[in-house]
Amino acid sequence: MIAIKGGRVLTMGEAGNLDEGIILVEGEIIRAVGKDVVIPANCPTIDAGGKYICPGFIDGHTHIGLEEEIYRVEGDDVNETSDPLTPQLRALDGINFSDLAFADALRGGVTRSLCMPGSANIIGGQAVFLKHLAPSLPEMIYRQPWGLKAALGENPKRVYGAQKKTPHTRMASASLLRGALYHARQDMAKEEAEIKDYPKQEVLIRVLKKELPLLLHAHRADDMLTALRIKDEFDVNLIIQHGTEAFLIADELLKRDVPVFLGPLLVNRAKVEMKEVSFKNAGMLAGQGVKFALITDHPVVPIEHLRVCAALAVREGLDEELALRAITLGPAQILGVDKELGSIAAGKRADLAIFDAHPFDFRSRLSLVMVDGKIWGA
User: Fold this and answer.
1) DSSP string covering 291-356, please?
2) Mean pLDDT, the chain, integer
3) Residue 104 DSSP SS3
């Protein structure tokens, strides 16, 4: 068992913020949190006096290890551009778990992330939920698969239009996605041996059964409205990825309880559909009641700057508590893992980040990060 004492604990849970709080960690689990927790005799203790203790941050949209740091062609495995429909592909099979970005993530207090294929394809493949520190590389896999990546908008048009293949238009993009879901729905009643190309259909069937969410890349409002129509038609669990113009259709998102992984925001307007990119969008979504979390889209924004993105959203109007929620409990809830992650509470996994000042203070430095009770020092 390890005790952490003396810090300001930003629990993101029912306990609120605790000055000079005490956290007991046993193995991978938080056993107790509070101001009056009794520290067992001879228990190793970490003095966090004057520091801030947060839940480990969660990035809900990255390409970490799949689009590697420092490498170009050698480490770029993010898009398979030979076919616009590749649901059978697994991001897991392209990840280099020795990528430098995993240490960078820890340095920024980011303990877990969702890694997914890119947005060149209408259906790109299966996402994997990772933890950034583990006793061995295989143990860095937290949940596999954890969603199916799909995309609408400019990217598939540009990639396949250049190849003189479908899709050339948004109409064709939507048609391909509908067609894939339609054929999978037909296959749901069949036995596995009867399903043609079962590896492709299996994950689509799991999406239709609501066992996995559809993680849909869309920046522009019209593309998101198309995604919502498809959700209505096939009754799938949908998470909008990026959502640059989500504030324009907040009422439609609320009507269907569709959340948004918002970002990247610390970028220029790299393409037409990103003309509305702004840190103010986070505050607008919060004000409209839309569920959202902040993302980096690493390596578009380096993953260690997730907290910087949250801080800049505060500067542009987002409430500070909601900003911290948007990189902790918010993504955990959207991804359905909030019983284990996202806040500091007894029974949850011991993912913690300790900073020498508030994590949104640009001068603050990480003192210690813990993933499943395993300590990594900056």
Assistant:
1) -EEE--TTTTS-GGGHHHHHHHHHHTT--HHHHHHTTTHHHHHHTT-TTTSSS--TTSB--EEEES
2) 97
3) helix
Task: Tell me the CA distances in angstroms from 207 to 50, 148, 188, 214, one per residue in order.
Answer: 46, 7, 11, 7
Q: Please compute the mean of the pLDDT values over residues 194-198 and round it to a whole number.
A: 93
Reduced to 3 states, what is the DSSP secondary structure of residue 377? coil
Question: Do 28 and 35 form a contact (C-beta atoms < 8 A)?
Answer: no
Q: What is the pLDDT of residues 230-250, one digit of tens each?
A: 999 999 999 999 999 999 999
Q: How many CB atoms lie within 10 A of CB 200?
A: 20
pLDDT in tens, 20-59: 999 999 999 999 999 999 999 999 999 999 999 999 999 9
Domains of the chain, start order: 1-55+342-378 (2.30.40.10), 57-341 (3.20.20.140)
Q: Are the beta carbons of 132 and 105 closer than 8 angstroms?
A: yes
Q: How many CB atoms lie within 10 A of CB 316?
A: 14
Helices (H), the chain: 101-107, 154-162, 170-187, 198-208, 221-234, 250-256, 280-288, 306-315, 320-325, 329-334
What is the share, in percent, of the chain residues with pLDDT greater than 70?
100
Angstrom distances, CA of residue 208 to CA of 46, 148, 211, 235, 236? 47, 11, 8, 7, 6
198 pLDDT band, cuts 50/70/90, is very high
Cis bond upstream, residue 167 (ω within 30) = yes
105: which DSSP letter?
Answer: H
* CA-based nearest residue to 210, from 243, 188, 179: 188
Lookup result for tokens 């925001």: 265
